[in-house]
Specification:
This protein is α+β, with helices and mostly antiparallel strands. It is built from two helices and eight strands. Helices cover 21% and strands 42% of the residues.
Length: 122
């Protein structure tokens, strides 16, 4: 319950202090104004029978991606359902697409691990 309250406060504070174009993307790690960011789209989360499907995006110093992922809460795995690669770091110039699903274990202590723990409790 304490985590849900913390997430609710975080979502509210980001909603009040973010620009409208970024309000639906919640930053998990990094800084949207810097070179590295990992965030998720808060309006498209589907939690069904132990799996959670959502969109995440990642920006590093050299690239940006937006991916639809599915988290299997029981197996602690993530499946990349679709990955869009961008030719810029601001997710505006879309490049190639990878739509071949790939499943892997979620690394312990990673930003994705933190997100999965929170979403799997819903």
């Amino acid at each position: 319950m304490k985590k849900l309250i913390t997430i609710f406060i975080l979502v509210l504070s980001i909603g009040f202090f973010s620009s409208p174009s970024h309000a639906e993307w919640i930053t998990i790690s990094g800084d949207p104004d810097k070179t590295v960011e990992f965030s998720y789209h808060s309006e498209d989360i589907v939690n069904h029978e132990g799996t959670v499907r959502l969109w995440v995006r990642q920006r590093t110093q050299n690239e940006a991606t937006k991916s639809q992922i599915e988290i299997n809460c029981a197996q602690n795995t993530v499946t990349l359902m679709m990955v869009y690669f961008f030719n810029d770091r601001n997710w505006t110039k879309q490049g190639k697409i990878n739509d071949v699903p790939h499943t892997a274990y979620i690394p312990t202590g990673s930003s994705l691990d933190i997100l999965a723990a929170d979403l799997c409790e819903w």
